[in-house]
Amino acid sequence: MNSILEALYNGRLRPDETMMPTHPEYQLLGRQIAALTEQWKNRLSEDEFRELEQLFDLCGQGDGMHSEAAFVQGFRLGANMLIEVMSQREESVLANSADCSVGMI
Questions:
Q1: What is the pLDDT of residue 35?
Q2: What is the 3-state secondary structure (H, E, C) of 58-83?
Q3: Among 2, 5, 8, 103, which is disulfide-ready with 13 (CB 3.0 to 4.6 Å)?
Q4: Cβ atoms within 10 A of the Cβ of 8, count?
Q5: pLDDT for 60-83, tens place per residue?
Q6: What Å distances lie between residue 53 and 16, 30, 58, CA to CA?
Q7: Predicted local distance difference test score (pLDDT) of residue 47
Q8: Which DSSP symbol is given to 64?
Q9: What span, in angstroms and rounded, lies between the C-alpha atoms of 69 and 73?
């Protein structure tokens, strides 16, 4: 059985490709975007619409960069929380051990 880290390293784990927002309005929003895009496609010339698509692509790239930064920051925060919890756990275990050994004297 491979570890999560091995799967991530070897490219078998791609959370960005399997993530699907669960917000109830997500699909509705997608349909609205598609409908408005089609309206603009019918209104604009081919060149103008191509420029609009370039704008959409740039916005998508910016959103992707923001999502990546948010993922990294969230992952670091989670890892730091685990470090904090585990370091306090050790302190707590040591304190409890000390209390028990003192009580046994």
A1: 97
A2: HHHHHHHHHHHHHHHHHHHHHHHHHH
A3: 8
A4: 13
A5: 999 999 988 998 999 999 999 999
A6: 23, 16, 9
A7: 98
A8: H
A9: 6
- b/e map of 10-44 (b: 16 or more CB within 10 Å)? eeeeeeeeeeeeeeeeeeeeeeeeeeeeeeeeeee
CB-CB contact of 13 with 7 (8 Å)? yes
For residue 97, the one-letter residue type is S
Collapsing DSSP states into helix, strand and coil, what is residue 16? Answer: helix
The whole-model pTM stands at 0.65
* The token pair that represents 52 in the structure block: 């609009």
Please give the distance of CA 13 from its chain centroid, rounded to a whole number: 14
Give the separation between CA 26 and CA 28, rounded to whole angstroms. 5
What pLDDT sits at residue 43? 97
Please give the structure tokens belonging to residue 30. 């997608």
pLDDT at 90: 66
The end-to-end CA distance of the chain, in Å, is: 48
